[in-house]
Design brief:
Oligomer: single chain
Number of domains: 1
Radius of gyration: 20 Å
Order of helices and strands: HEEHHHHHHH
Number of strands: 2
Strand order of the largest sheet: 1-2
Number of helices: 8
Structural class: mainly alpha
Length: about 250
Amino acid sequence: MRTILNVLWQLGLWLIVIPGILGIILVAISRANKRLVAMQNGLWGMILLGGIGVILHELSHLILALLFGHHIDRVALLHIPDRNDPSDNCLGYVNHSFNDHNLYQRCGNFFIGIAPVLGCTLAMTLLTRTLAPQVYNYCLQLFLPTMAPLPVSAGSKWQLIVWLILMVNIAVGGFDLSSADLQNSAHGVTALLLILLGLAAILAWLSNPLMVGQWLSAHLIIAYWALILAIVFNLILWLFLHLIVRR
């Protein structure tokens, strides 16, 4: 039993605690960026500077909901609120339903709720790798010096401009989790813990806690790096927006 608990701790640490802390920091900074943009530019400023991020946010919910077998009721990847309706204040939504007796679908609620953090982080990483490989290599060598850098050719200024526009859009409109997102994730916590407990029992029989921890850290370090990359970009944007607001 003690071995199972130790393996469960390793699973919780590397799969939940570390990415959870990084995700909380990322969401908090992105929410601050969203408020600064809305305060300075209003609704249409939010749509122009964060609309692509909103679409990616809702698309992340949609993809994870489909992967976990949920029924999709209604979708609006980008929604313009009705100014005459005070209750209409969302920029997008994905309404879905699930079978409460299906453990897989219930567990999926956890990941569907936090899907924008995963999807937007992945998008930022791929955009940086594709459009700004020099930036990608610099960040890679800064945080993961043992990783081999990408072969870099001379890129155009247009690539960097497109990269910057897309990154700002994702940072402003993509990461912020609503109360509905968090409530949705909370519905999947119990099912997730049951699955982790079962996985811990299997891994305790096949391996040991030390090996499990080493394997997880070796394979998830690139995911933590991607989260840090997103945090750094959001933080730089937050500083820039603060300078604009104070003028």
